[in-house]
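We keep the chain:
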Amino acid sequence: MSFPSDLHAELVKANLTELLKDPFTLNSAPDFLQKLHSNNPRQPTERSRDGAEKWFFKNGSLATFKFPATLDRRGRFDKSSSYFNAVNRNGEVKLDGKSLRNLKAVFELRPLGDDDQWAYMYPDGAVTSSQQAVAAILLIEGALDEKRGRLPDDKQTRIVRTYDEEDRFVFTLTSKSILTEKPEEVIHVASSSAQQLAAETSLSPSKVKRLMQVGSPPTEARDNETPRLRDMPNPEQLFRDFPTHLNDVIKAPPIFDDHQDLISPTKYDLNLPRESIAIVEAYLCTWEIKKGGKTERRVMHLRPVNVQLVPFEPKPAQEGTVPLTQEDSQSLQEKRRSIKATASSSRADSTRSAAKRRALDSQHEGSKPKKILQSMPSSSAVDDVMECDDGKDGSEFVEADDI
């Protein structure tokens, strides 16, 4: 949805102003680091299914933080279109059973700057928050190098990347694996079907299901609203090589549009702008990929909890939203009523996300607090040749859901 230019600017400023009031917004890298537990990163009390180590606050809760940034889907490191992170830096697609299971969306985020085309909309403090998020991640990456030993650049996957020719940083925001395997089907057999089954000399799931349908009421229609692998953009028809996975459910990363509706990955190229201001809530996770007890690769991801495109229409406060103040909301509501009275376009109905998920794992503190590791920023950033398996080729690692 597009807003008139004056309302657009006011909404951006109002949305970001409310963000800056949020206690989870990162406004100072040193202050954020002081809140972190000394025993970081570490496994949660209940081990992550993907084996990730995470950062926690001193009170034991997951260290999530918020900041504004520009979502740039045209960026060099963005992999949010067809086949996602199965596409390497040369535009080649590597899709096999492992990479399909490990399919993730990677979004490039550009820190806000004073020279941005939208800078006149930013309230005081917005650029600082965005830039301090970069500083905090650089410091944490550098501290991890000091704690566990620095690896060659080509043996690391970093969150903060560089455009050397433009002398600037960007983030990469990496979702969890988006594919959920179809659960094993349970075949229900009525006790009154004994004679039907007794007449069969060779039983199979398909034959039993066919027999059970005879004289039975029609089964409940399949949920056509749930996105499946077969619904994903497939320009090279590569998903046809995985027929048993075509009905696997797609888990949408928590990216929300200007109406605070979840955007389906099946429609990113249609509904997710190529460039947009966004309010990001995320946390850090890392993996040490070892072989023979020695770290061969280190992977760090910035994982989204919530990404809200800006501007968005304010609604009553809900979990995961950034509401406007009552005064601002009333003023903007009056303007919207005036605009809607003359508007000719209408918005298609969309499935609303039942609730925006917060990934705040409640954990217990680990060992006795120690001095927090600090270091100078490390600016190395290497784009993986193939990020789909995060370097786990043949190395010792937890298999579960994969990184």
User: Anything to note?
Assistant: The two ends are 35 Å apart (CA to CA).
